[in-house]
Specification:
Elements lengths: L2 H14 L3 H15 L3 H7 L9 E3 L2 E3 L3 E3 L10 H6 L4 E7 L12 E4 L4 E4 L8 H13 L8 E5 L10 H12 L5 E5 L14 H18 L3 E5 L5 H13 L4 E4 L18 E4 L3 H12 L6 E4 L5 H9 L4 E4 L1 H6 L2 H9 L1
Parallel strand pairs: 3-4, 3-13, 4-7, 7-8, 8-9, 9-10, 10-12, 12-13
Antiparallel strand pairs: 1-2, 5-6, 6-11
Helix pairs in contact: 5-6, 6-7, 7-8, 9-10, 10-12
The structure holds flavin mononucleotide.
The site of flavin mononucleotide has 28 residues, from strand 4, strand 6, strand 11 and helix 11.
Length: 338
């Protein structure tokens, strides 16, 4: 049985018989356990796509398909993701303080549309615990060769006026352990977070991180929402260019649920196929206005949607919802067809 068939016929039915969050936790628990088992890691390597190396913001990627933020929020299964063939992995969102996230249920599946809505609210172990975990992994022989990004967000209890200190705290701890850092100002599930995309607030954040990065000197990217106007996007691009940002991750989940009539009133961010077009438009809007490299995220679920992102000018791709529906075979399909 090939990877795609194994996932579709065996693994996915088991996972989809559980609630979305229970399925996620089961997958993460298994991948975490496997991460400590070299012989099983070697078995997973069957899923790996062909090499297609490239250098983006100074880092070498063996293939351009990465795991998007939010799948491995705490960085517990990094060796397994590398063995599965991801060209890079973005862990997080990590916040300065550990936090439980919003009440459950908080992830919802829409299989007909191959979509998800989530309102997790940055449930994570916090920057101190994640830094200690990554330090141990770096010191072991199991740190993978692929680039590891760390996605940072704001702790819920920190008032928005103090957001900069919150990001700086996490950045100071985690940037030395990362290959690149993403400032996430676009998740819809932390009140006020998206207001950090507004010009004055964004410039303050980017300037503070730039100062802090004088020691670590890591590529710092910004992850944006797909619910911005073109005027807002242009201001963001200008701020990124002026403040040494190395690239843009476009996009996060959308608040526009119109593609799923039954979910119009469901709170949270929509991801998967219904996000594809909008996120591609954002990739094109950025690459036509700037030479900043773009990591495309949003609705990549097969070779055609991946090709569309490259044609819009993306340098790298990230998958989340497509991987939930299609499984590990997705990477090979994209690599062969894009
Ligand atoms: C359950 C879930 C949790 C997510 N958590 C995060 C997160 O913590 N930080 C973040 O930047 N993006 C998060 N995302 C957004 C994804 O990284 C990605 O940008 C978005 O889902 C669009 O890609 P997709 O259509 O391939 O899923 C999450 C998405 C999902 C579905």
């Amino acid at each position: 049985m090939n990877a795609e068939a194994l996932y579709q016929r065996l693994v996915r039915p088991i996972l989809f018989s559980l609630s979305p969050e229970a399925a996620h936790n089961l997958a993460i628990r298994n991948l975490r356990a496997i991460s400590a088992l070299p012989s099983v890691l070697r078995q997973l390597e069957r899923f790996q796509p062909a090499l297609s190396p490239r250098t983006v913001f100074g880092l070498t990627f063996l293939n351009p398909i990465g795991l998007a933020a939010g799948f491995d929020k705490n960085g517990v299964a990094i060796p397994a993701w590398a063995a599965l063939g991801f060209g890079f992995v973005e862990i997080g969102t990590v916040t300065a303080k550990a936090q439980p996230g919003n009440p459950k249920p908080r992830i919802f599946r829409y299989p007909e549309q191959e979509a998800l809505i989530n309102r997790l609210g940055f449930n994570n172990d916090g920057a101190d615990v994640v830094a200690a975990r990554l330090r141990r992994l770096r010191e072991s022989s199991r740190w993978p060769v692929i680039p590891i990004g760390i996605n940072l967000g704001k702790s819920k209890i920190t008032p928005i006026e103090n957001a900069v200190e919150d990001y700086v705290y996490s950045f100071r701890l985690l940037a030395p352990l990362a290959d690149y850092v993403v400032l996430n100002v676009s998740s819809p599930n932390t009140p006020g977070l998206r207001s950090l995309q507004e010009h004055a607030a964004l410039v303050q954040l980017l300037a503070a991180i730039r100062r802090e990065n004088e020691t670590a000197r890591k590529p710092v990217l910004l992850k944006i929402a797909p619910d911005l106007s073109i005027a807002e996007l242009e201001q963001i691009i200008a701020a990124c260019e002026q403040h040494g940002i190395a690239g843009i991750v476009a996009t996060n989940t959308t608040l526009d649920h119109s593609a799923i009539p039954s979910a119009r009133d469901q709170t949270g961010g929509l991801s998967g196929r219904p996000l594809r077009k909008k996120s591609t438009e954002f990739v094109r809007a950025i690459t036509s206005r700037s030479s900043l490299p773009v990591i495309a995220s949003g609705g990549i679920a097969d070779a055609a949607s991946a090709r569309e992102k490259f044609e819009a000018g993306a340098q790298l791709l990230q998958v989340y919802t497509g991987y939930v529906y299609r499984g590990p075979g997705l990477l090979r399909e994209i690599a062969q067809g894009s």
